[in-house]
Known about the structure:
Layout: H1 4-17, H2 47-60, H3 68-85, H4 91-96, H5 99-115, H6 119-123, H7 127-144, H8 149-154, H9 161-165, H10 178-185, H11 194-210, H12 212-218, H13 221-232, H14 242-264, H15 275-286, H16 300-320, H17 326-335, H18 338-348, H19 356-371, H20 375-384, H21 387-395, H22 402-413, H23 429-437, H24 444-458, H25 462-470, H26 473-481, H27 489-505, H28 509-518, H29 531-542, H30 591-594
Helix pairs in contact: 1-3, 2-3, 2-5, 3-7, 5-7, 5-10, 7-11, 11-12, 11-14, 13-14, 13-15, 14-16, 16-19, 18-19, 19-22, 21-23, 22-23, 23-26, 24-27, 25-27, 26-27, 26-28, 27-29
Amino acid sequence: QKDPDYLKLWLDSFVSSYEQFLDVDFEKLPTRVDDVPPGISLLPDNILQVLRLQLLQCVQKMSDGLEEQQQALSLLLVKFFIILCRNLANVEEIGMCSYVNHVITMTTLYIQQLKSKTKEKEVADQTPIEEFVRHALAFCESLYDPYRNWRQRIAGCFLSTVEKSRQKYKPASLTVEFVPFFYQCFQESEHLKESLKCCLLHLFGAIVAGGQRNALQAVSPATMEVLMRVLADCDNWDDRNPEEVSRKAELTLKCLTEVVHILLTSSSDQRQVETSTILENYFKLLNSDHSALPNARRCRQWESKFIALQIQMLNTITAMLDCTDRPVLQAIFLNSNCFEHLIRLLQNCKVFQGRLDCLAVSTIQALTAVMHKSPAAKEVFKERIGYAHIYEVLKSLGQPSRELLEELMNMAVEGDHMAVGILGISNVQPLLLLIQWLPELESHDLQIFISNWLRRICCINRQSRATCVNANMVIRIIETLNSHSALHCTCAENLIALLGSLGSQSMGSEELLQLIRLLRTEEPKQAHPYVVPVMRAILAMARKQGMASALQYFNLCHSMAGIAVPSIHKWPGSAFSFNAWLCLDQDRVDPSTTSKSGKRKQLY
């Protein structure tokens, strides 16, 4: 306490001994070290009090400007605290002291200097200041995310709720200074380095991922305003490093995803912001009115950057919906009119010149995510938007790519379209859309590819055929075959073979009449090119294949499906019996039934 030089020498020696714990780069996973720094009880007596006074003196001298020696001491103190916090048993006690408030005060002043654009700043070396800021943010991370959950999250390692519950030490309680500090850092921050903004976003993500209590304190109207403003700024790159700006957008979206997941696990009295409010602002930004921008910004290069941001935002919707409380979040998305916003995005993007197909693919992925395994969401989409409308919107974008058509296939099976035999039809409407689109496709290769896949997925088992028949697919196929001049012969043969398979399941008189009318030609003596394949299809319908089975049956494939019998007082007489044959399809494997948490049907 009486000899500052000796204190600095001791701190230097301590930091040098445990330098491997100073992993201040947020982009890297924490390094695994067998050793741990000492506990507070093993440090010299009163050392924490001495260091607090030293830190306080540095804060008090900040307004006049710190000398080089004092700058070095303040950085050394922050390094010391980072190392100390890497022994997780020390985190709570360090967090209860005033160190973090002093560090935040100094960091605020330093960031103010870094944000100002002055001649002195251009001449002076800013490296020591930047180094202090990076270490200060890493110190806060050590307090509020001691297990580095956020770093693992951005590296692609997702911790389950059970794994998080096993974390022995809790993060320190978040200081009330954080939200004003975070908000102020992004005020008038045009001249602040993008890499430092990324560090600030990393810290916010770490606080949210570190623990629910701190997360709910950090997620406030002010911090959400900052995230939306940062996101809106990502389409204006100017002369900044494009990679850093793109990374900033990516981190902001990851923060928003983490925020949505945290809010889902909380009660309404704990939340400062509702998920619906976040989504409202999110969709408003996604559908920004570019026509209001000055012409200088509406150049081709800006369009490319803006579309790239929109694609990132659409992909984030899919990431948000990848959570345990998916049905709850799907309901919030529906109440936020997400379908209307997504369709409007496709309609508005026609004024742009490039990457429209990528935008359409990401939009279809987002729609699929919102409707995934939710009959209610599918019904809402059908009523509010309709597949006829989305077909017209997609068609207006020009000839589709294979990727876009494959995404519609993925929407139909709610998974990978290549997994035919594992995934059945979850949403038949995109299949009808694809059949309708076939004559419009200029690429014969695409026509053959789609028709071949449709034939396989629709005929895979009795349930798939029944689903297609109930959706009036037979009539849709006949309407498409009427445009035979636009169809490749192989594509037409695939569709007719599919027609025969569906007809063997069920074929109405009106459908049969339409099929016969299809074979009419203007020249009486000239046979229609479809005569032979259609006759084969009709023979296939008439022929009985496989085991004898009932033509009318109950479909109990849905997890909530069952047969309800009348209540006892409505039974005729003293008893009630119900007889039925049971048919178990063996040719479809549902991935959910093979998992530990899968359900199985029970017969009583």
